[in-house]
Write a structure and sequence with these properties.
The chain has helices at residues 3-30, 50-64, 73-92, 96-112, 134-148, 158-176, 180-200, 209-228, 234-243, 245-260, 273-279, 284-307, 310-331, 340-354, and strands at residues 33-34, 46-47, 117-122, 126-129, 230-233. It is mainly alpha-helical. The chain has one domain.
């Protein structure tokens, strides 16, 4: 790793540490705050403009790391669009349609630059030319991951810490594969996120807000997309999804939970993973640390997958899915009576015991 990347990392981190107290004052003065309600864990008014501090740190690292010399105008402009969308949402609470419009504009800029997934290699079948589908798939990829971090932003430091683990994992994989552009961007965003975590970990002094959650999600989507650029195998396509295991897992079971309980998929609730951990008696801080651990385990799994054989990959994915289902049943992520695998297990061993 060259000196400019290390320097960019620390520049981003220190910039965020220095600028965040000012951002806190600006957020309070402008009324960009998060008020407590029945769904939220915090009990006092909190400034939520932290994403601006993260963005300032990224800008500082952007120039120190020499990214302004790279041909990434579309990615940069799209990132600014995401920041503006997040800032407007934090201040004015935009409608979902308006917020999505900003994200679509950002994704459209990236796709128009040619950064798309064009060829997918499927084991036993060969290359599949995506053709026209390269555009909607890339669009869905950017929009989906951009929103993923926002979905777990429910406890102090949770979204920031999980994002840091995800980005650090991407940085390690980029270093292992000699992809210096991805490594440089990763280290800059990682430095900014860690600098913000200094103020965001429990008890938080500021929230990142939609500005930060959308921006970090966007950065992760672009970093993973750069790694998958043009031609990709089916399983390497899955690796970034596994790195994002915590938000993907939580979102998937939120959908299952709402379908199982016959509620609209978009309806908010207090059944997310962090809510369940709190309800089981874990403290705020310990719940966050445990979810960091889950994210770290997903990252280790992704690193193993990136180096595994085809059948080893299939086995790892199968075991991972079974483990996640059992975890969801144990903590009651869907419903206290939703325990299909546990019920089958008990039934089998009851039969064996009686025989």
């Amino acid at each position: 790793m060259n000196l400019s990347i290390i320097l960019a990392f620390f520049t981003s981190m220190i910039s965020v540490i220095l600028v965040t107290p000012l951002v806190i004052k600006i957020a309070v003065k402008l009324g960009v705050t998060d008020k407590p309600n029945a769904r939220k864990v915090h009990q006092k008014l909190m400034p939520r403009l932290g994403g601006l501090a993260i963005f300032i740190g990224v800008i500082a690292g952007y120039f120190v790391g020499g990214l302004h010399h790279q041909k990434m105008t579309a990615i940069t402009v799209a990132g600014i669009v995401i920041i503006i969308t997040g800032l407007l949402d934090d201040k004015f609470n935009l409608s979902p349609k308006l917020k999505l419009t900003g994200q679509l504009l950002a994704a459209g800029l990236v796709i128009a630059s040619g950064l798309t997934i064009n060829v997918l290699y499927i084991p036993f079948f060969g290359d599949l030319d995506m053709g026209f589908w390269a555009y909607p798939i890339t669009l869905f990829w950017i929009i989906g991951i951009t929103n993923a971090i926002n979905l777990i932003d429910g406890l102090d430091g949770l979204a920031t810490g999980v994002s840091s683990i995800v980005i650090a994992t991407i940085a390690v994989m980029a270093f292992m594969n000699g992809k210096m552009l991805i490594l440089t961007i990763s280290m800059i965003v990682l430095g900014s996120a860690l600098g913000f975590l200094f103020y965001n970990f429990h008890p938080a002094k500021i929230f990142m807000g939609d500005t930060g959650a959308l921006f970090l999600g966007y950065c992760i989507s672009i970093l993973s997309l750069l790694g998958l650029y043009k031609s990709v195998t089916l399983f390497s396509f899955i690796v970034p999804i596994i790195i994002l295991g915590v938000p993907v897992f939580d979102t998937a079971y939120a959908i299952i939970r709402r379908v199982f309980n016959k509620r609209p998929i978009s309806s908010p609730d207090k059944g997310h993973m962090h809510h369940r951990l709190l309800s089981l008696g874990l403290s705020h801080r310990n719940s966050v640390i445990l979810m960091y651990l889950f994210s770290f385990l997903f990252s280790i799994t992704a690193l193993l997958l990136s180096r595994s054989t085809l059948w080893g990959t299939i086995l790892i994915i199968f075991l991972l899915l079974i483990s996640l289902e059992i975890l969801a049943e144990l903590i009651g992520l869907v419903h206290k009576n939703y325990k299909p695998i546990i019920k089958v297990y008990r039934k089998i061993f009851r039969i064996r015991g009686s025989s």
